[in-house]
Amino acid sequence: MKINAKKIAAIIVFSATLFSCRKNTQKFYEQKISETKAKHTWYYFSDGNLKKAEGISSVPQIPFKPWTEATRISDMSVQDSKNDSVPKGFAVVNRTGILVFDGEKINLYRDSEIFSNSTQEKLVFYNDTPIFSVYRNSFFNRQNLSENSMHTFLVQFNTEQNVCYPILTVENFGLPASAEITDFIWDGQFWTCSVKDSGNGTEKINFSYLTFQPKTELTSISPKTAENSIFVTSTTEKEFRNAKSPEDFSKAPERIKKLISSLPKNFSYSVKIKTVSGHTPRIFVNNKNISENSILEASAILSDTWTACLFSDGTFYLNGALFENRILNRGKNIALKLPKLPSGFYYKEFAISGTSLYASWEENSFYTIARSGFICVDLNEILYKNEFNW
């Protein structure tokens, strides 16, 4: 089934996979949604701004940049509902700011002070507050590493004021100015971090590892108060790698396993599983005894009322009921095939706010990124309004 950039096919799957890499000999039920009813809108980033496009082919070409320097959605997730309001989606846009998805409303909040000279990624939530990490690459930002000004590690996005506030800096951990905390894992209690020290411009790079716990509410801490507000201990590379290592898919949450149970057992894929307003996602791999280049990547989210999973080829699985709506397809799984992307483009992260699906996409070549943006899909038009026609 051929799908172009102006059409979305909604496919209700009971026992068959949608992936073209597997010859399908089983029956499955499908429903094509006409172009006039299948509402979706393309967005892309250009010079720090958000712009609409008719499709990927109409997005102007730009030079490739290392992924740490490129404007792209580096992470994306969903906040739990507050006071029965529509759950919001959030996206960290590297080198730009924070995207907020509130139902059909989209807002981009820029912050040049925090975003202009560093890399931003790893979105998590602490008591429903979005938190993300910041670090500077020693190769591309060498000119900034000698500055005496503090450089940030952890930042919160205040959802009431729509502004970013630093929580912790590298200096708060007693680390030298040449060090950066380039990775972290938060399990809901402990923050385990990887520290990279470039040695003040020398070629030698050292790695170390630490854990910390806040002594008070993390969102109440600032770089000025952090000295007496966190408890820091050293840890080992082994402990960090153990916390970060993917697990076998057999250990994944049952709701995710049921959601994509139509995939063949020998199919190779990895699923990064998040929870609404959750901590660091866990990664589960199916049939991992092959080349990593052959593993199809996916991102999944567990909500109280729905479960969803997006694969990099645009296959999107959904089960449950969206905000203040009835259960879809009598509780059976649904699969959508998002518009096919050109060669070299991939879907990455997603969020659902109300009945709007937001899925990020980017043009990727090895470790570099060029064009990037996201697609907004109206699930109300595609699923709820057409449910009785299935």
What's the story with the biggest beta sheet? 9 strands, mixed
Beta-strand share of residues: 35-45%
Uncertain spans: 1-37
Number of beta-strand segments: 27
Percent helix, as a range, is under 10%
* Structure class: mainly beta
> Distance between termini?
18 Å
Radius of gyration: 21 Å
Morphology call:
globular
> How would you state the average pLDDT, rounded?
86
Strand order of the largest sheet: 2-1-24-23-22-21-19-20-18
Number of helices: 4
Task: Summarize the entry for a quick read.
The chain has helices spanning 112-115, 237-244, 254-259, 379-384, and strands spanning 9-12, 29-32, 40-46, 49-53, 65-66, 73-78, 89-93, 97-102, 105-110, 119-126, 129-135, 152-158, 163-169, 179-186, 191-197, 206-214, 230-235, 247-248, 269-275, 282-286, 296-302, 306-311, 315-320, 334-337, 345-353, 356-365, 368-378.
Can you walk me through this structure?
By secondary structure, this protein is mostly beta strands. Helix content is 6%, strand content 44%. The chain has 4 helices and 27 strands. It has helices at 112-115, 237-244, 254-259, 379-384; strands spanning 9-12, 29-32, 40-46, 49-53, 65-66, 73-78, 89-93, 97-102, 105-110, 119-126, 129-135, 152-158, 163-169, 179-186, 191-197, 206-214, 230-235, 247-248, 269-275, 282-286, 296-302, 306-311, 315-320, 334-337, 345-353, 356-365, 368-378. The longest helix is centred in the middle third of the chain and has 8 residues, at 237-244. The protein is globular. The protein starts with 8 loop residues before the first strand and ends in a 6-residue tail after the last helix. The model is unreliable at 1-37 (pLDDT under 50).
